[in-house]
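hey so i finally got around to running the thing on that chain from the lab meeting. sorry it took forever, my laptop kept dying and i had to restart like 3 times. anyway pasting the input first so we r on the same page abt which one it is
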Amino acid sequence: MQQAGTGLPATGRDIRVAVDIGGTFTDFEIFDPAAGAVHQHKAPSTPADPSIGLLDGLRQAAARFGFALADVRQVLHGTTIATNAVLERKLPRGAVLTTAGFEDLLQIGRHGRRDIYALTATPPPPLVPRNLCLGVVERLRADGSVATPLDEASVLAAAHRLREAGVQAVAVCLLHAYANPAHERRIGAMLAEALPGVAVSLSSEISPELREYERLSTTVLNALLVPIVAGYMAKLERRLAEAEFGARIYLVQSNGGVSGTAKAGREPARLLLSGPSGGAAAARRLAGSLGLPNLVAIDMGGTSFDVSVVHGGQVAMVTEGEIDGLPVRLPMVEMRTIGAGGGSIAWVDPGGRLRIGPHSAGADPGPACYGRGGTGLTVTDANLLLGRLDGENFLGGAMRLDRAAAARAAQDIAGRIGLEADATAAGVIAITNASLAGAIRLSLFEKGLDPEDFCLLSFGGAGGVHACEVAEELGISRVVFPPHASTLSAWGILWSDIAHDLAATQILPLAEAGPALAEAAARLRQDAAALLAEDGVAEGQRTLEWSADCRYAGQAFELAVPLAQADFSDAGLVSIAEGFHALHRQRFAHDDRGVPVEIVALRLTARGRLPKPERDAVEAQAGTARTQRPVLVEGAWVPATICGRGAVGAVLHGPAVIEEAYTSTWIPPGWKVSAHPSGALMAERSA
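ok and heres what got predicted. didnt touch it at all, straight out
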């Protein structure tokens, strides 16, 4: 059989591909079990239709590494489709149906102040206007019992109004639906009949948990993302079918696991941290293999800078996060993201201060040095002007950078702030590094952690030229540059398994909750089995991980207590209580065994193991001769050693630039770097 689009015959190899689509580049990690190798590839993203860049990149990788598209059995796909749609507010017209009398809930939100020094609070605008938030007659009590039966005539009247308004998505979130989903399910069935083709999301299916506003916000986000993700998946599947590409597609979720396309299409809100969660998974894996249990993982690409923390060998998970100020009550990797990447644009504010980002040149037109029409000075342009990037060999020689265009962009900014172009480029880097360090400080300080106890793990295409200087600003003395640094998020995705998060809200004194928890556990097991079967996971490849959200009676928030097993006997409940006391003492330095413990929710993560590499196979890096190039350091041009990763050897002192196909690493004066047996580079402050 000849494989369309590659010119290569199918070979019968079982190729596994991980893809991370970013705003500027699409990263690929390809595992070839026959060769026992993991290959990396990078291709420009196509923001107008990311499926084009994905398929083009796959074809390029197939031709480069000698396989056919028919050989690919699995594609694990991380994407920023959902995230970008929310950040850019490119969302369809949506509506809300809720319990009559609670139509203002989305507009009221929470009244917490994010900036305590701001004179006025500026909450994010609601995603659904008030005139499309409609009430239906019904009422449930907190225990799920019916106070007011559902009035189906009010549902039909609301459906008529929504049809006239031309909505494309509806979020249904009734009071206390987490305790009894019957009314929401009936409304969902009625809307499916009355509004064919309109996406309907039920809070009892998306986020069956207490806290009405957070549950409503999550359901609204999900409903509005369904048409976007469904449209993208339809394009992708059509293009893959045209290329006779029959691999199974899995989408990466915010929890670091993957799910099949059916689940992702129903619950796209679970994709909001799709790409960055792969980097956190990679960091956790590297923490174990390198024997470095405390790592700050920083992923700097073309558009954003993501920070995740590995403490004691584990990455923290949270049951509630946010995207652009909007709460998302779903399990996700704990991460902080700021708009700072290689494509971030420098500008001058009305006060004459030099500022960087958060707006980005992206992939089209890209930085000025790309020569595609961009005119703004970006972080990448500044690094090129300082000598940290090789304009003749960018992307392994696939792209030449236009230094003259970067210089023109720098001169434009320099004229407005009264500096020379070189000094302006250096200022761009200094401000960027300060922003990156600030994001890391917040991620550590809010957990009571000291930066000096951590190593920095740097990855992403743009991270290597900033990491050592950022570490120095934080007082961190060691930086790890892993193999495949520019595509490490995709590398982390390569090792992923299927993961489905389920929850059942049970607000009861823990000592009395045994029968209710046993019943809830049976229901969650049944739902988990259905989801794993939908993804084609055999029973022998399934594992279940339990946890319980607990709090002291009278507390407003809870802690997630990991459970070794779903044991809700008297002895099992005592064990859960002891686990909660210990966790509370660890987190807050005290516990109170005289106060009763309450259970708030039972959680289950159902995992389906996927075939994957048996070891961290990486390609050997060829050595290249050491040369020199002038680099600007503290206002003076100095000679810096230039070499490939394979030529680093036992020790290389800065100033030096280590150049690879898809990234460069800047080792400043006062730092030294050496090669680790794993293929990583270890940089340390030498002065």
